[in-house]
Amino acid sequence: MPRNYDIAELKRLDVAHHLPAQQDYKLIESMGGSRIVTHAEGCYIFDGDGNRILDGMAGLWCVNVGYGRDELADVAAEQMRELPFYNTFFKTVTPPTVLLAEKIAKLTGYRLPHIFFNASGSEANDTVFRMVRHYWKLKGQPKRTVFISRWNAYHGSTVAGVSLGGMTSMHEQGNLPVPGVEHVRQPYWFNEGRDMSPEAFGLVCAKAIEDKILEVGPENVAAFIGEPLQGAGGVIIPPANYWPEVERICRKYGILLVCDEVICGFGRTGNWWGHEAMGVSPDIIAMAKGLSSGYMPISATAVSKEIVDVLKTGGDFVHGFTYSGHPVAAAVALRNIEIMEREHLIERTRNETGPYLAKALATLNDHPLVGETRSVGLIGAVEIVADKVSGARFGGAEGTAGPMVRDLCIENGLMVRGIRDTIVMCPPLIITTEQIDAMISIIRLALDLAAPKLTTA
Ligand code: PXG
Question: What's the whole-model pTM score?
Fold first, then answer.
């Protein structure tokens, strides 16, 4: 049970001393501090003001097995007592780290049998950045340094993560991207492709990658990186033919294919990996979040044998972090995966709750403010529009309706994100059909409440 916190004092201290992630500090100050989340159980979070909120975001796209798993707390405590820390720098490793590496390799069908551990998704992508360039140099093709990514992609908040990502607001802070990253258009059919069929649009977006390869020179391109579906970009689900065509292009020019599975991995799409849902076989994947369901900070980069065989010709790969292969995080991740297997959460998402969410979302299509609903497994989106036919947005530009509807959802007991004018959701994989119904009812209510304000604004 929660402790008896002095919430007013915590809010005061929050404003005085704590700098939150990706926030407007002045705004938090004007609010008198952030919402203090005190405890959580199953699919619900509870705050210091007495609110119970259905967590439609699984924390931050990560608490796949839901909150309140005593066995994850127990396994962490056991490991902390036995060995709280040891590193992987001194020709040393710990038992949970080795066992987790084997487990992840197995989940890739041993196609990506070698695992490098990190503590965050950003670091997993930093590892990609350094490893890929090093690989090409060792292979005798040192000019292959360029990464191709998509506008509006999210690959993290470190220098490499922001550079690989395609968020222009992030690029503007810190003079990024670093040289050697090129961005191409995203496969966002609802916003950018409705004048053609999804199939035609899928080919156009894949062709943009080929055009960029030819512009940069294939001999200079190291890798293409992409999220199987863009999460933080607004749950952008590419047309079905996009990824197979991207893979064909990468193979044609001998370019490495990297999938960022930080959100899509560990059951989110109803498969272990998002790339399985998209029908491609990457050479490298980055993962985090659902790997431990957020119970411990841990991430990993899984790599093909071919790449590691080349790395073996180069002596030390001088890369790694203090917390690479942290034994407590690894022990928790192992047990988290065991829970997913024991409770058949991937199959349940694929066969039951995923299809149920898709149908429940589709019931919103009759709402005058809804332009499209879409989902894969348990990740979904609702597009808010002023005009259902043209797709025009309220206020003439994106970003008015989304935050308003999001805030109304939260006020009415549902945590979702509003990305531009898209409401996105990514609930724990343990969500029940009744809880999905509750989620959709609250979104409908929020849309109803927002409609008069938006139409008169
Ligand atoms: N790749 C992807 C696909 C992600 O979604 C990262 C990498 C970076 O992971 P770390 O652990 O370094 O944060 C992420 C993280 C949002 C939001 O606005 C999304 C993330 C992080 C913070 C905010 O939805 N995803």
Answer: 0.98
- Run of H or E residues at 447: helix 433-456
DSSP-H helix ranges across 147-197: 159-164, 168-171, 189-192
First-last CA distance in the chain: 44
Ligand 1 atom nearest residue 417's Cα: 24
Q: Give the contacts of 327 (CB within 8 A, at least 6 positions apart).
A: 79, 83, 84, 85, 86, 94, 95, 96, 97
Q: Is residue 407 within 8 Å of residue 445, measured between CB atoms?
A: no
pLDDT tens for each residue of 321-357: 999 999 999 999 999 999 999 999 999 999 999 999 9
Q: How many CB atoms lie within 10 A of CB 283?
A: 20
| Nearest protein CA to atom 24 of ligand 1, as residue | 232
Query: Would you say the CB of residue 154 lies under 6 angstroms from ligand 1?
Result: yes
pLDDT at 457 over 70: no
pLDDT (tens digit, 9 = 90+) per residue, 264-274?
Answer: 999 999 999 99
> Could you identify the atom of ligand 1 that is nearest to the CA of residue 231?
5
All structural domains of the chain: 35-65+344-456 (3.90.1150.10), 71-342 (3.40.640.10)
